[in-house]
TrEMBL record:
Protein name: Disulfide-bond oxidoreductase YfcG
GO molecular function: oxidoreductase activity
Domain GST C-terminal: 108-232
Superkingdom of the source species: Bacteria
InterPro entries on file: Glutathione-S-Trfase_C-like, Glutathione-S-Trfase_C_sf, Glutathione_S-Trfase, Glutathione_S-Trfase_N, Thioredoxin-like_sf
Enzyme class: oxidoreductase
Assigned keywords, A-Z: Oxidoreductase
Chain ranges of the GST N-terminal domain: 18-105
Encoding gene, per UniProt annotation: yfcG_2
A Pfam family reported for this protein in Swiss-Prot or TrEMBL: GST_N
Organism: Aquimixticola soesokkakensis
Keyword Nucleotide-binding: no
Known EC number: 1.8.4.-
Length: 232
């Protein structure tokens, strides 16, 4: 029978409370989705800091849990009907946690799939595009003389921000109430500040999106979860 204590990842990130859900993460936009969700849902867990270096995310221990060598990942020793569950991909984890807790995912079938639709909007569009914007605007790609890639991701960031600006007109949250869609989306919007890209993407000219991000980060569970696991 699989247990947290016998899982290969335990050799590098030993669990002190193996009966709890185990989170392996780093406080990036993708990583804090899960810690924020756990705090919002009130699910007890133990957090392990997994650094972003190859020595950690490409270690045999971490690859035994996530062969795609990306944070976050979880182990839940008490899954459906007591099953031992291992999961990677932040969007999948959010859906799993919502179903486990019965929180932050509407019961109505139409609203449920619409909520998941917005989670996929973040997973397939907002996250990858803003991540590439960060690379080409702030990090290594910023030194490239050819502006094609940089201009592409600036333009795509503007387009996606306007999709959200329209969606949030007259709304506090992406859906009728706070859901996992907000937990997926808001941390990536906040990353524009880290990238120093608010001005170039027109973020500061928007009305609904900045108010939405401020509202999100004003939640006590978000304030706690955004710093878990603590940076070294």
């Amino acid at each position: 029978m699989a247990t947290v204590s016998t899982h290969p990842i335990n050799a590098k990130w030993p669990a002190s409370a193996p009966d709890l859900l185990q989170l392996y993460s780093f406080p990036t936009p993708n990583g804090v989705k899960v810690s924020i969700a756990l705090e919002e849902m009130g699910i007890p867990y133990e957090a392990h800091l997994v650094g972003l270096s190859d020595a950690e995310v490409k270690s045999p221990e971490f690859l035994s849990l996530n062969p795609n060598n990306k944070i976050p990942a979880i182990i839940d020793p008490d899954g459906p009907e007591g099953a031992f569950v291992e999961l990677f991909e932040s969007g999948a984890i959010l859906i799993y946690l919502a179903e486990k807790s019965g929180k932050l995912l509407p019961k109505d079938p139409v609203k449920r799939i619409q909520t998941i639709q917005w989670v996929m909007f973040q997973m397939g569009g907002l996250g990858p595009m803003l991540g590439q914007l960060g690379f080409f605007y702030k990090f290594a790609g910023a030194s490239m003389e050819d502006p094609t890639a940089r201009d592409r991701y600036i333009g795509e960031a503007k387009r996606l921000l306007n999709v959200l600006e329209q969606r949030l007109e007259g709304r506090d949250w992406i859906m009728d109430a706070f859901t996992i869609a907000d937990i997926a989306i808001a941390p990536w919007l906040n990353a524009l500040d880290f990238y120093g890209a608010k001005e170039v993407t027109g973020y500061n000219d928007l009305k609904n999106v900045p108010a939405y991000v401020a509202r999100f980060y004003n939640r006590p569970a978000v304030q706690k979860g955004k710093d878990i696991p603590p940076r070294p």
